Amino acid sequence: MQYAKEDKTAYIKEEKPPVQMYGRLLNLAYAALAEKEFKQEKSNFWEEPHQKASLWKPCADKKDSERLGKPDKSNGYLMVSANGGLNQQRVAICNAVALASLLNATLVLPRFLYSNVWKDPSQFGDIYQEEYFMKIMKDDVNIIKELPSHMKSLDIESIGSLITDADIVKEAKPSDYLEKVLPLLLRNGVVHFLGFGNRLGFDPVPSQLQRLRCKCNFHALKFVPKIQQVGSLLIRRIRKYDASQSMLDKQLLGEFMPSSASKMNDPTRGPSRYLALHLRFEVDMIAYSLCEFGGGEDEKRELKAYRESHFPLLIERLKKSKPISPSELRKLGRCPLTPEEAALVLAGLGFKRGTYIYLAGSHMYGGESRMYPLTSLYPNLVTKETLLTDSELAPFRNFSSQMAALDFIACATSDVFAMTDSGSQLSSLVSGFRTYYGGRRAPNLRPNKKRLAAILSENSTIGWNSFEDRVRKMIEEGQRVRARSFGRSIYRQPSHFMMEGRND
């Protein structure tokens, strides 16, 4: 792997020896995996365990009579400049569609704000197919590519139609928009949402609007051919062989879906299964967490320096509040999982040493020193940087959102998707996509960080059989089929339970 060279930052001056927090458990894991090599048994986490999934109905599945339809007359134009990275922008687009319907507005194709964090100038048409998006949504919402010429000269801020995140609360209700935004739209003919991150809640929302943003996310947003083509190449190289075509492949790769007739290697061996791992251990995330990760005083100094440089508001908040100790944060499940912890979970679930693992994103804090426990247990670890050539990646190099789209494709089409932070937008959207199109053959592995911390706290005494049993029960609990609870993301849980007496 190439983590040390690619991921070195100003806060990581030189490559360090391997950092381990659970040496005894790691040794038990090595022994357990070595023993499994000589057995025919396989992990049962390659399959979706709950047949009840067949009783779920897609959230965009709706009868014609339930369609809101477009209004005869538009109340004005709705502009959105979405912030964040690929996945935050995707959610913003779907929320914008729902709001346009709610306000009887004409939606101007959303713009993406340039961020000093993401450093990506990509716009909608660089990532998603504009014409396809407008075609799929045309029966529900009026969408135009840009504001009409007679409106372009308006000073939107001076007329009071510029709305920032400070003006709308997080997880706002539809009533908030009807009370605060609709009067502005009717008065000025246009409103512009600047930012718009996470500004429409999941409940209470009328079922028609819920289905509308579901339709946007799962049906209308298709990656552009440039991304689909390289995504297809990436998938073929991960699998080594072309697997049978799946609905996930079709939705994400379009005409570039791998051909079942094409073989890249020995056709008698069949397609390679792979596990995709979204490991969130970037320096910004772990510095913000205020946790400790076994790296001693050097680590503490590095993360403290990073916080002071990048999170001044956090520093000010810490001065005014009573700090929670790193050990308590870990007990509460608030610490990002390390590569070592991810490796122990996979070993506890019975994945063999030869498991082919695609790592989404490769900017891991600590480079090889942190990755060593994972790569030593699971050496068949790859990233898009190791599978694609420099020339194949060149068109994406300076576009972080387009690079993230490749990770999205590789994670969504994997045989198993494992996440270390179920609250991240990528993990939420990918797991939802797999639920929606996976046909009960696309399992998601979601650890409970609080329960895992309790298990790992027994590192010095717990036996391997007990560790395996508790880890498996933890993951199985996360896979249990359940109705979407109030306020939870419909992008992550995109189906509703169809049982007698329940049709919402």
Which class of secondary structure composition applies to the elements? alpha/beta
Span between termini = 48 Å
What's the mean pLDDT score?
87
Count the DSSP helices.
22
Largest sheet: 6 strands, parallel
Low-confidence region ranges: 1-13, 261-265, 497-504
Question: How many distinct beta strands?
Answer: 13
Anisotropy-based shape: globular
Helix content: 40-55%
Strand content: 5-15%
Please compute the radius of gyration using only Cα atoms: 24 Å
Can you give a write-up of this model?
β2 (77-82), α3 (86-102) and β3 (106-108) form a beta-alpha-beta unit. α3 packs across α8 and α5 (130-137) runs antiparallel to α8. This protein has helices at 3-6, 23-36, 86-102, 124-127, 130-137, 174-180, 182-188, 207-220, 225-239, 247-253, 283-289, 296-310, 312-319, 326-331, 339-348, 367-377, 384-387, 390-393, 400-412, 425-437, 449-456, 464-479; strands at residues 56-58, 77-82, 106-108, 111-112, 143-144, 162-164, 190-195, 275-278, 357-360, 381-382, 416-419, 444-445, 495-497. The strands form 3 sheets. Strands 2, 3, 4, 5, 6 and 7 form a 6-stranded parallel β-sheet that branches. Strands 10-9-8-11-12 form a 5-stranded parallel β-sheet. A two-stranded antiparallel ribbon has the order 1-13. 42% of the residues lie in helices and 9% in strands. The protein has 22 helices and 13 strands. With 504 residues, it is of the alpha/beta class. The model is unreliable at 1-13, 261-265 and 497-504 (pLDDT under 50).
